[in-house]
Amino acid sequence: MNYWLIKSEPTAYSWQQFVKDKQTFWSGVRNYAARNNLKAMKKGDLAFFYHSNEGLCIVGIAKVIKEHTIDKTATEGEWYGVDFAPFKALKKHITLAQIKNEPQLKNMEMLRLARLSVSKVTDKEFDKIVLMSATT
User: For residues 29 and 38, is the Cβ–Cβ distance under 8 A?
Assistant: First the structure.
């Protein structure tokens, strides 16, 4: 299993709306590195759901329920989307400040490539964030 982080502005698409919808097609990604990450996702992979711009925190975990397919919202180029379903809300949200202050998370792709909307998360990073959410 692989782990990921997907970002969404809560005013555009929030965790609460995602839970209400029960699943969504993650579309509209127009960055090549993020596109490649979507393309690499496999059914069953888990992704942190991060509220960007407002909140700046990981609020839940999504699960890949269908691997990449063509994103029909694209007017040019070959872009992909992935189907996600809510997997689990985090007991306690993990803020960007907490992530930045945790030595074990200093190399997270989301920190190194801050503008990337879909990023990789290592097994150790995933486990650490889940632990932080349970104990913070």
Answer: yes
